[in-house]
Amino acid sequence: MVSKKMPKGMSGFFSVRQKPSDKWGVEFSDVGRCWWIDTYPSAHEAVRAYDVAVWRAERPREHLNFPQIESRVEAEILVLQNIKMKEITTKKSSVVVHASETDEEAMARFPREHPEYVQAELEHYSKCEAEHKKKEDEAGPSMVIPIESSSEED
Fold it and tell me: Gene3D superfamilies attached here (predicted)?
């Protein structure tokens, strides 16, 4: 049986895509797990990093962008920077609104089901408030000059 080759993306390579920053990002999926490799200044470097990830995961050679590379060691030599494979373990939760409940009920349920998001939001706004206060303190006190009204009252 002939194995089906994975489709290549718009970059012309497997699992490599250009980011808005014009750098090239590399993601890698393996047996239900998703890995973020890194971003690279060129597509060529990103493709080489992807191939190292394929070698490390012991995937078939047909998943390589450069199948002519003979070994993992050879693939790693061709990569200019160290490969960091960070597993993407969390998926963003969504609020499912059931047909029998209102939006308000669903929003009230969210903090009970996802307290980690509520805590992260509180920490974020606390940090923003502290930064704002620090900027105000550095700027010094502001001076308000009262303007006298010129309207005449009899």
Answer: AP2/ERF domain
For the sheet containing 24-30, what is the strand order?
Answer: 16-18, 24-30, 33-40, 86-88
In whole angstroms, give the CA distance from residue 48 to residue 66.
8
SS3 track for 60-94: CHHHCCCCCCCCHHHHHHCCCCCCCCEEECCCCCC
* pTM, full prediction: 0.49
Instruction: Enter the tokens of residue 87.
Output: 């597993």
Of 32, 38, 78, which Cα lies nearest the Cα of 55? Answer: 78
CA 111 to CA 113: how far, in whole Å?
6
In whole angstroms, give the CA distance from residue 38 to residue 137.
39
Residue 62 has a CB neighbour count (10 Å cut-off) of: 12
Type and span of the H or E element at 59: none
Helix axes 115-139, 103-113, angle to 10 degrees: 90
CB contact set of 76 (below 8 Å; sequence gap of 6+): 52, 55, 83
- CA–CA dist 129, 119 (Å, integer): 15
